[in-house]
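Standup notes
- HV: blocked on the assembly model, inputs below
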Amino acid sequence: MKPVNIGILGLGTVGSGTARVLQDNAAEISRRLGREVNISAVCDSSEEKARTVCPAAAFVKDPFELVQRTDVDVVVELFGGTGAAKDAVLKAIENGKHIVTANKKLLAEYGNEIFSLAEQKNVMVQFEAAVAGGIPIIKALREGLAANHIQSIAGIINGTSNFILTEMREKGSAFAEVLKKAQELGYAEADPTFDIEGHDAGHKITIMSALAFGTPVNFNACYLEGISKLDSRDIKYAEELGYRVKLLGITRKTDKGVELRVHPTLIPECRLLANVNGVMNAVRVDADMVGETLYYGAGAGALPTASAVVADIIDICRLITADPGNRVPHLAFQPSQVKAQPMLPMDEITSSYYLRVQAKDQPGVLGQIANLLAKENVSIEALIQKGVLDGSLAEIVILTHSTVEKNIKTAIAAIEALDVVYAPVVMIRMESLHGRNG
Amino acid sequence: MKPVNIGILGLGTVGSGTARVLQDNAAEISRRLGREVNISAVCDSSEEKARTVCPAAAFVKDPFELVQRTDVDVVVELFGGTGAAKDAVLKAIENGKHIVTANKKLLAEYGNEIFSLAEQKNVMVQFEAAVAGGIPIIKALREGLAANHIQSIAGIINGTSNFILTEMREKGSAFAEVLKKAQELGYAEADPTFDIEGHDAGHKITIMSALAFGTPVNFNACYLEGISKLDSRDIKYAEELGYRVKLLGITRKTDKGVELRVHPTLIPECRLLANVNGVMNAVRVDADMVGETLYYGAGAGALPTASAVVADIIDICRLITADPGNRVPHLAFQPSQVKAQPMLPMDEITSSYYLRVQAKDQPGVLGQIANLLAKENVSIEALIQKGVLDGSLAEIVILTHSTVEKNIKTAIAAIEALDVVYAPVVMIRMESLHGRNG
């Protein structure tokens, strides 16, 4: 089957990321899709950049030319903003091209016009990347939760603001100071207004509100209040009372009408949303049948956002490929591509371990145990001797660094064989679950 | 457009829930779908129950009869187990019926056979409800993250076990004691083996592993270790060291092969997964482009599971309805069903509030402020006087109960007008984000 041809408008952070995902993961993507995705044309202000990022694609200066090319099936709009992006998207739809966009501003402000034209022209406009970056929240709202009346949504949907609030809380620093640090780290723009005054979150919650309640997008109705006036004193007092302050986008259907608002919000510290820190995003949805669900992940960045852009491209390719009955393969990959892999026996897995050893309370026991672990190349992260239980019995709790399971088992057998140890040794596996963001 | 006809096998907890969701949310579902979903036939051991739950549907005694009926387009298998369920599903596929099932055991043990037959017969087998109840994790793995190499999955995917572990940690109780409580509350079966020994979690992680890595389902390769031998002492020691113990299903692709395992696991308390409590489920996915994402919600229960069953029914209906280009409407609802709603101005929203008032440190100030709040019907949840700042200035922090925003604004204006108060009063909104599960 011949490749699907993609034209990309704009090779900034997300555009370059999209090209990289399509290139680096080409094999895995075609294992899932059953056909290849080819970048046939790109448009960017820098021809040099275009040649570097997508050497095999045609370079096109004029966006209007790209959206009319016969070798472009899907237009991926990553210009951002509502100028050239809007004109190019409308023109592309006129020409019967399917659209993928990450442009929240465009959809929050002109979505009704764009979707209406798309309906007339029977093309798809996909926009997973426009809300919460790599988190598949649009798919959850439109498909995964389709059996429900959605009741409300509350989201941490601006990573810059969440990074600043996290730092203000953890370090007690003032807003201006943390903003400067965020700018140095590249988490905030030179002009940070759009992020810190709630505009970006407002665009995103406006789009989600429309999807939740079946209303037109209505950004003008969205109340915006940012975090620039927050005093770190209030964050501290809130914490003393058991709350965290987060910039939330909130939308809720009430008997009187729809609430649509962005503002700093106190939430109880026990909620998962309260524990979403740094630049991470999360969206909580309340719906009548499923109750509360929450979706967490990176809300920005080249590759996470590109992950959503490319998922949308795959969605469109699956639909424009014949055989709708096989749109999504049962096991996620094309049947011919489902391949057995060696399955690791437990002895071969890698993990850290928690051990609890009961031993006689006498000198030298700790050393003996440590030596037996060392003999199997198991290194110790922490070791604490717990209170003696009945005058002669000591409990020793050990956390190990990562090791292969057969090593820990050998060490445990040796420890259990010690005269001073009462078998069995308790062993529980540990996972640090480190992410890119810690 | 004529309705899609559904035949349901089994009217137990999930079957009855599915019937209820389809009936109670019929209007919202057809707003999204553009056609109606009709339960045309049901099969259950109790005819009386069938007549009560689905009075308009034909009652069928024999599952083989149901799966051959011409008035059934989609067979919803909710028998559970691998006896009649397996035979009926295979027969239904033979007859060209699309399948929706919540049966994790069936798919983890016989998925390869079922999917292979489905491919031959060109029918869809949907199974969102088989893993993590109402959380749309299958959709995320097959579609939302399709641009990625998935690297690993770690999930709290058995609510019974998570409830028991949460209680053991919070109350320091022994396993047997908490199990009894869970049975009384209906969170554990009379024979709890399937849940507490990891079988159920094993079925679910087996299915997710296949979807993540493009391998056949291989339940035999899954290592199972449950929670019945856990000592609450180890949970306490783990907590002292900064860890929580969770029953995780884990699968990971390594250079040597695929890890597939279920066991109690220590995880750092700062991770979101460590803070998933009670019967709730959560699945964390690590993938090369998007990084870590996490999906949280109810993993069991009639209505949350039915939410996933009905989402699958809607997915199938969208695909077998003509016009694949319009499979999922842009704004989630059919264009003709997108309707403006009154948008509430901020004065009309309902919220709780955090207030910080700076005032002269003299008697009677607190009372004056409290009276002004009471006058606007704002009741106080907490009030603390913070340390005096410079000998004459006091800071008063107030948390209010829920009220209408215009009332709090009127009260604030009155407070700011007091001689003893230094304006402005700091006001931050609060949201409790209570869920069904607290």
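- HV (later): unblocked. Chain B has three domains: 4-133+303-337, 137-299, 346-430. The first helix of chain B runs from residue 13 to 24.
- Next: hand off to the docking folks.
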